[in-house]
Amino acid sequence: MGTTSYIFKRILSAIPLLLIVSIISFSIIRLNITIKNINVSLLLFPLLTLIFFYFLTKLKPWYVLGLSSLIFFLYFSWHLSLFNLLPFDIFIKNKNLIFVINFLFLSSFMLLYWLQSYINKSTYVPKIVVGISLLIISCSISEKYSINIPVSPIILKAGDPLADLRFNPSISREILKTEEIRLGLNEPWHIQYLLWLKGLFHGNLGITQQNEPVSVVVRKPILNTLLLSLCTLFCTWFLAIPLGIWAALKKNKFTDKLLAILTSCGMSTPTFILAVLGLLFALNSQILPVGSLTSVNFYSMNLFQKILDLVKHLILPTTILTLISIAGLQRQMRANLLDVLRQEYIKTAIAKGLPTSKVVYKHALRNAINPLITIFGFEFGALLSGAALTETILSYPGLGALTLEAARKMDVNLTMTTLMMGAAMLIAGNLIADLLLKFADPRIRLEG
Predict the structure, then answer these.
(1) What pairing do the DSSP bridges indicate for beta strands 148-157 and 32-39?
(2) Where are the domains of the chain?
(3) How far apart are the first and last CA of the chain?
């Protein structure tokens, strides 16, 4: 399979995963449930539906699933086109034209998945679609023919995004009502999600509680976090790989034992402890700046001074995140290389008189580093969550600190955007890792 085709298929397969992540995240953020009755039919009908779906997938041929999924997707695109929340909705007055635009966009997007499943002779996507559609139908039936058992009220609520305004006596009810409509809080949960999803499909990330476009608010923090992540990845791999090789070659010697002690300390030390220690060191020594990415007079500096100022601000957060990441990677590199050095072909190469350096760096290292490349994909995505606490303590203007602040304020659009960025970074990291594996080991074939 070609690299371009593989990347295209991986991106297509990642989109349903991102949708599932967005549904779960949105449910947690906008959780607002009051349970006064237990609907027995809500448990009974979906269970019967799953049983029916199981026999349907076993007995019916592929085209039934494909046709059912196509009908459901077309209905979903029509249902989604009823909500007008896009920028061009303001300029286009013809509602039929808006419906056609949404219908064509979503239908072509969903047909792409259907055709991919048909070409690959796979029922994966049609089964998911048909299963979801049957569950939705069963839930609708269970609501219509409900069997309720009264229970003590159970309230599950994530929080109120307008709590600060409600406790402000100077804010009138009219303003609160306007804010609820502006943020879509007056709509049911699933309508809010569909509105957010529709805007996302058309590049509209929504607005924050401060009435600012989310795309503008997250632009600079995303660049700052990506810069910090790339610096951390470079420093981690630049140090961990040589240290792991050195420890493996010096097995059970003083160097190996010293590195084992240091890595054990690094792995057992929480991130926030290192961040607080780094903050105290910077404040007391005044050697490294804390609190931003650049100095106040940054724009009055020349090019060399700007680069030096940027590096000085990156040293502290990069060092903290590198110390946390380097320990596990160094140990993994050591263990992999020792395992490869025990292989028969390595012993044969040494017995034939090949130099040890050539055997280690040309033959053993290439096979030992493959598992680390796989870890790279997870490390790339985990840097966002690992950097959140560090960015908050050091007042670094990145995406992690912005995510925590948005979650605290219950800013739905901003929180969803930052969470989806984290999921996208994880998927991108795994894709890059697959391509690097192909480059490092020609025996590996890309299949998707």
Answers:
(1) antiparallel
(2) 35-155, 215-440
(3) 8
| Residue 59 contacts residue 123 (beta carbons within 8 Å) | no
Q: Which residues pair with 32 in a beta bridge?
A: 157
CATH, domain range 215-440: 1.10.3720.10
- Distance of alpha carbon 97 from the chain centroid: 35
- Spatial CA neighbour of 346 closest among 252, 444, 246, 248: 248
Q: What is the CA radius of gyration of the chain?
A: 27
Following DSSP, what letter does each residue of 260-323 receive, concatenated?
A: HHHHHHHHHS-HHHHHHHHHHHHHHH-SS--SSSS-TTGGGS-HHHHHHHHHHHHHHHHHHHHH
User: How much is the pLDDT for 81?
Assistant: 62
Question: Dihedral through CA 16, CA 18, CA 19, CA 21, nearest 10?
Answer: 130
- With tokens 């998707």, the residue in question is 448
Q: What is the pLDDT of residues 329-380, one digit of tens each?
A: 888 888 888 888 787 777 777 777 777 777 777 777 777 777 777 777 777 7
Count of positions (residues) in the chain: 448
- Confirm whether pTM is higher than 0.85: no
**Calpha distance 304→402 (Å, rounded):** 30
- Phi first, then psi, for residue 108 (nearest 5°) are -65, -40
Rounded-to-integer distance, Cα 361 and Cα 363, Å: 6
Q: Tell me if residue 152 falls in helix, strand or coil.
A: strand
